[in-house]
Amino acid sequence: MSGVDAAVRAPTHLLYLHGFRSSPRSFKALRVQAWLQQHRPDVTWACPQLPPSPRAAVEEAQAVLARWPAGRFAVAGSSLGGFYATVLAEATGCRTVLLNPAVDPARDLAPHVGEHSYFHDPDRHFAFRPGHVDELRALTPAAITRPERYLAIIAKGDELLDWREMAARYAGCALRLIEGSDHGLSDFDQHLPTFLDFLQLTP
User: Fold this and answer.
1) Is residue 46 part of a domain?
2) Which of 43, 74, 126, 186 is the 20 to 30 Å CA partner of 201?
């Protein structure tokens, strides 16, 4: 795929960051994990349950990356996790795959301050606080640098985020624009090969 730095080796470690109210039981995370277990068991996988605080979530992700060999890891993220993945990519220069990434989560999540349950465990609740919106604002990268390190898979049918805004934010990056689909990428199996090819993980 164009935009991939051929000199960069395939990652030996992959960190996946889920979205708001999601978890490591995310459909997309489980699909990637299952594929790696079957086809690339040599790749180290991590998909932690991220805390509600954006600052704490990024710090937790940074702690995972700090244990891994520099230059040999990649990060993927969906929705809010895509925003976090961008923060980490700008800090480390790693290869990154984004799935319907949040562009301005401080703006989008400000109306959702309050108590929430997790999609995959409705009995568990967490508080999203006004201070968390401030943390998102403070974390927002000023610009996307080294766009060749990014692949953004964006659904025009996303019912939560504007695909035009996502495409504009990641202009110059490798883009896969999907006609239709939805925010959760329920047709993710169709796009998994693109995800894997960009990271040079296919056998």
Assistant:
1) yes
2) 186
| Cβ-contact 14, 74 below 8 angstroms | yes
And the tokens for 179?
A: 């006609």
* Helix count and strand count (H, E) for the chain: 7, 8
Within a domain: 4? no
CATH of the domain at 30: 3.40.50.1820
Phi–psi pair at 19, nearest 5 degrees: -95, -175
Whole-number pLDDT of residue 7: 47
The reply to whether 27 falls in a domain is yes
Band of pLDDT at residue 60, cut at 50, 70 and 90: very high
The pTM (predicted TM-score) of the whole model is 0.93
d(Cα 30, Cα 90) in Å, to the nearest integer? 26
Total number of domains in the chain: 1
Is residue 4 scored above 70 in pLDDT? no
